[in-house]
Amino acid sequence: MARLTGIISKLNGSAGNLTFRQKSGKTIVSEKITQTTNAKTELQLKHRMKWANIIREYQVLQPYMKLAFGGTRNGRNDYNKFVSTNLSMIPVYLTKAEVNAGMCIVAPYEITQGNVKSITISGKGKKAVTDISLGTLSINSTTTVAEFSNAVVLNNKLYEYGDQITYFLVHQVVNEVTNIPMAEVDACCIVLNKSNEAKLLALVDARGFSVQEGCLAALASNDFGDHGMVWIHSRKHNAKTVISTQYLVCENKLLEQYQGDDAYQNAVESYGGVNDVYLTPSGKLKPTSSSSSPAKPSNPSGTTDGSDGNTENSGSTDTPDGTGSEGGNGKLEA
Questions:
Q1: Sign of the C-alpha dihedral computed for residues 199, 214, 170 and 189 taken in this order
Q2: Buried-state track 42-54, b at ≥16 Cβ within 10 A, e below 16
Q3: What angle do CA 219, 225, 230 make, to 5 degrees?
Q4: CA–CA separation, 80 vs 85, rounded Å?
Q5: Dist CA 267 CA 201 (whole Å)
Q6: Could you tell me which of 317, 267, 296, 262 has the C-alpha nearest to residue 45?
Q7: Rounded to whole angstroms, how far apart are CA atoms 87 and 327?
């Protein structure tokens, strides 16, 4: 701390790493304290560890996801909204090593958000069926885009020519070298066009453009393995893309292994465990003369990690190990 006189003696506030204040007619300058500790209370760790898999899944989907949450509005971009929306989902817990290796567990996150009526999907995997009625249409190698488009528009009052139907198939795979679970995406789309005589299956993935129960559905004869899938409805409206709100429909045996108390404990231990000591500097208990260990204090009411989980004000989000990740733009347009 120093006392200043002369031309800069009237300063108040901060400049860089220095803080100025007036006291008894003098200017006192002090250096800001910038050192912080990486608190590891259970509440903080549990909150922070929710982020990692959400961020990883966004990174996998991001090249396809431009405007998936309406684009950048009110200071929030699609990345911010994807993360904050999915923080309320059942958490997927990854260890520190798994996060650093880029692991991703395919989970049933909300991947689009908009005002178009959602496509309802019943069943999972090869039994997944949408509520998009196709009437008497059967899809085969000769079916044209025009025939498919007419079937959709004539049998579903909320669909119009020019609308787009997109299909995502997100595979849960294991890296052959690292043995780390990863995610890969297959995506296709079709714009409803009553004049397009191109063959439908030459343009889209038959695994997501089949017919069951008279509706658009997954291919019943296909083995999808561990995966998530979804159909999305989008259209141009007043020069903007509007979209249906959709969640990945998952059939993934790995998912359960990374949810729940056991997965949480494994993840916590990988970050050095929980530190719930609040009153001792640096969180370390001093030894006592008693041979018995002091009781672990319960989490006091009102103690928080200083964060409400809102990622609105930043284009980046910290992962549990403190590293940042930032989203970008992909494509999902009618």
A1: positive
A2: bebbbbbbbbbbb
A3: 55
A4: 8
A5: 44
A6: 267
A7: 16
3-state secondary structure of 190: strand
Cβ atoms 218, 126 nearer than 8 A: yes
The residue among 270, 269, 280, 267 whose CA lies nearest residue 37 is 280
Give the strand pairing for 129-133 and 121-122: antiparallel
pTM reported for the whole predicted model: 0.71
Residues 86-135: pLDDT tens digits?
999 999 999 999 999 999 999 999 999 999 999 999 999 999 999 999 99
- What the block records as the tokens of 249 is 């429909």
> In the chain, what percentage of residues exceed pLDDT 70?
69
Residue 218: burial class (beta carbons within 10 Å; 0-12, 13-18, 19+): buried
Beta strands in the chain (DSSP E): 2-4, 13-15, 18-23, 26-31, 110-112, 121-122, 129-133, 164-174, 181-191, 210-212, 215-217, 227-237, 240-243, 246-247, 249-251, 316-318, 324-326
Q: Which tens digit of pLDDT belongs to each residue from 300-329?
A: 333 334 344 443 444 444 455 444 444 433
pLDDT tens digit sequence for 17-32:
667 677 777 776 666 6
Which of 147-161, 242-256, 259-273, 317-331 bottoms out in mean pLDDT, i.e. has the lowest?
317-331
Report residue 154 as tokens: 């004539």
**Residues 6 or more apart whose Cβ sits within 8 Å of residue 290:** none
The residue among 322, 280, 309, 312 whose CA lies nearest residue 297 is 280
Query: CB of 83 within 8 A of CB of 311?
Result: yes
8 Å CB contact between 174 and 184:
no
Letter string b/e over residues 223-258, b meaning 16 or more CB atoms within 10 A of that residue's CB: ebebbbbbbbbbbeeeeebbbbbbbbbbbbeebeeb
| Count of C-beta atoms within a 10 Å radius of residue 137 | 18
